[in-house]
Fold this protein.
Amino acid sequence: MKYAVILGDGMADEPLKELGGKTPLEYARTPVMDALAKAGEIGMVRTIPEGMSPGSDTANLSVLGYDPRKYYTGRSPLEALSIGVPMEETDIAYRCNLVTLTQEEAYGEKRILDHSAGEISTEDAAVLLRAVAEELQDEEYQFYVGTSYRHCLIQKGGSAAGLTAPHDILEQRIGDYLPKDEELRMMMKRSWEILANHPLNLKRMAEGQNPANSIWFWGAGTKPSLSSFEERFKKKGAMVSAVDLLKGIAVGASMTNITVPGANGGLDTNYEGKAHAAADALLRDGFDFVYIHLEAPDEMGHQGSYERKIQAIENLDARILAPFVSALKDSGEEYRIAVLPDHPTPVRLRTHTADAVPYLIFDSRRNEQKEQIYCERTAAASGRKIERGCDLMKILLEQE
């Protein structure tokens, strides 16, 4: 038996009048998901424990079977694992976004226009982060390049101060959300002075791209300690993702990260490459379980674009799920697949919510046919609800 999770980050949403009262998932053309739903089980699952922040960190830990209340120590430390950052027990890791701020006002009066600086390339980001590090890095604070707009700051000692995610305050004045810590606040203000007129940002603006004109710290935490996925569930697992957070969770859980050329966390990612890599992991390389993570629906939700979010969902169905399921079917292997988001990212809000999300579990051994499609509405109407997201993995693996 082979097992897989196909996770569309932020895929769940609210009904939109522009879509005739349907959500992007309900409106999107998803024939493969719907075919699996007809022969499978759908319901709702709460991936965010009550009182915890609705981040992809806590949500994906839940989906992988780890209770965030026990295992979560902050987002950035998980990303630090992915990029090989050395951490001591007393170190603090911070996510360091490259963001786009408005230009004219004093720093505290500026607004965040784009939390990802136009999904800046890793190559451009590395140039800009090096410029920041050359002036601000010292023995206490060390910068590390990650992927696209997502980077890391390690502080020797210190404490994990409460910080605000930039995608939670889009278009808002930043003064009320700057770090209380004087040194962190100073570094963010100084980064504006370094980056606003950097030649690369001037070039980006001339080309109509958003400048990455400030750093933004959030997601602080201490070194994580996850138990091995294989020891926990007796399955050899692999991760297929373009983003450091998921790769870091995989490192912490002693899973194998599979790198797919051209996978970048954006709408133009290598969908087919992810599908083929995941199928090869199960059918050729001896893995029992694979986790395919797609970032694009979440990014389109943060952009507030239901059109592009629909496109991301349709790409997930046609360009990941279709070839992946076809490969499993042709192999003759029996398999169980779960399809779900980690959390909603409503385009109206442009940030995450803690609402329950729809899940689909398909078992190739079952041939029953039901009149149902996969979306939030029918999942809620099913009456099934998993209250603890960390229980979903045991259900998928038939260990509960």
Summary: The longest strand covers residues 92-101. Residues 280 and 293 are 16 Å apart (CA to CA).
